[in-house]
Design a protein that fits this description.
The protein is 59% helix and 4% strand. By secondary structure, the protein is mainly alpha-helical. The protein has one domain (8-218, 287-323). It has a four-stranded antiparallel sheet with strand order 2-1-3-4. Strand 3 and strand 4 form a beta hairpin. The chain is globular and about 65 Å long.
Length: 329
């Protein structure tokens, strides 16, 4: 298999899923070694885990916009958020289909169930519009809470507050020591993800809602060559978001995650990735490589400029992590 034939989206999904699983393991190891090694145990922590701290990243975004200074406690979280927004503006929601580990788990859980349950559930279009509302409500509440209701003085306090400094530790215990309600919610989400393709990504993810807003301004889209199309509807059957494709000249929906399923299943090659600016085309592997390139370059710049790992956080961990169970927001 040569470079162009490699499924870059699948490679990206597997890489980031393994990365976060390994990061979770080393987070546990860092906490276990903290009483022995002190701040040196912090070396086992992966900053990429801050991508799972949406509240911290949103607060850090407001702090950066108001002061011009990067979040000194969770800079990686803000970096990941800014790169995700930038990628959505340039390349739509490829972050969701290539990088997000939750999206990967949701996608492969649904694929796995097809080996046991052969039926598929296609939701009525009107119902899908209704079900998309919660993720925008969650996003709206988060943005209102941080940008409108939270005074700037509280932002400054929150960044170095005990809860925020060990928020990933709290997140870890949330999953390692789940309450009955947590188990019920996770079980419910898993069941829905097994029955309905990309359930979390399509209907509940506030990050996905945020990226949808920025992807609206993207100049890139999947386009259909009317002359080549034979209206076989194979593209729509392969689309996990149930988008209309066969009767469109361009898939302009903000729900498109550029999973590339429609392009790869088209028997006539009638679907292309095209930009409105310059009219150039991208193959699926070119799109994936450009998207990954944005993150590789962005993360590299962040690491070089000191916007990835926090120099202050180890001291806070040493102080507050041992009492994590007693710290609440």
């Amino acid at each position: 298999m040569n470079f162009k034939q490699l499924n870059w989206r699948k490679c990206s999904q597997i890489y980031f899923l393994l990365l976060y699983l390994i990061a979770g393991y080393f987070l546990c190891k860092a906490l276990n070694l903290l009483p022995v090694l002190g701040q040196n145990a912090f070396a086992y922590r992966f900053p990429c885990l801050e991508g799972f701290l949406p509240i911290s990243a949103t607060v850090g975004l407001k702090y950066w916009l108001f002061t011009g200074n990067f979040d000194p406690i969770h800079p990686a979280g803000l970096t990941i958020l800014l790169l995700a927004i930038s990628s959505a503006f340039l390349l739509k929601r490829g972050f969701c289909s290539h990088i997000c580990p939750i999206g990967t788990i949701s996608e492969y859980a649904y694929k796995a169930r097809t080996y046991f349950l052969k039926f598929t559930i296609k939701l009525p279009k009107l119902l899908t519009y209704f079900l998309r509302v919660p993720k925008y409500l969650l996003l709206g509440f988060l943005l209102l809470a941080v940008f409108v209701w939270m005074p700037f003085q509280d932002i400054v306090f929150f960044i170095r507050s005990p809860y925020n400094t060990i928020s990933e530790v709290k997140m870890l215990y949330f999953f390692l020591e789940p309450s009955l309600l947590t188990l019920e919610v996770i079980t419910g989400l898993l069941l829905f993800s097994l029955l309905i393709s990309n359930f979390w990504c399509r209907f509940l993810c506030p990050y996905g809602a945020l990226l949808s807003i920025f992807s609206f301004f993207s100049l890139i889209a999947v386009t259909r060559n009317r002359e080549e199309c034979v209206s076989c509807h194979s593209c729509e059957k392969a689309c996990p978001s149930q988008l209309s494709i066969t009767n469109k000249e361009k898939v302009s929906s903000v729900e498109c995650t550029f999973c590339q399923n429609c392009i790869k299943t088209c028997p006539r090659g009638a679907l292309k990735i095209q930009s409105d600016w310059g009219g150039y085309h991208l193959t699926t592997w070119q799109y994936s490589c450009v998207l990954l390139g944005i993150f590789i370059v962005g993360l590299g710049i962040a690491a070089i400029t000191g916007h990835w790992a926090s120099a202050e956080l180890p001291a806070y961990w040493l102080k507050y992590a041992p009492m994590a169970h007693m710290i609440f927001h």
